[in-house]
Input
Amino acid sequence: MSNHLDQNAKDCIAACNDCATECGNCCADMVGKASPNDCPACCIDCAAICRLAADAISRNSPFAQQICKLCAEICDWCAKECESHDMESCNRCAEACRRCAEACRKYAGVMS
Output
């Protein structure tokens, strides 16, 4: 990672990347399974915004904080949807989403 990144930014990038990975795993595990809510569709949006947030932070984008605020909201939604399922991959996804939301709020300077 670039030298312009402080530890807070590096932690957020790591949380975003982990969340995107877990969302991909959850989505893959849910293929062909019935869902009464937005899982696994939420995982697609969540993984995309997590990747965008990590990229924006690494490039020192002037919009990185705004993107991270949105990322936290989407992660909250995805965690809520995924945690309602009794599948290991969904539970791991929900946990990663909660960690990412917290890291994004911290990076963006938003109190949870």
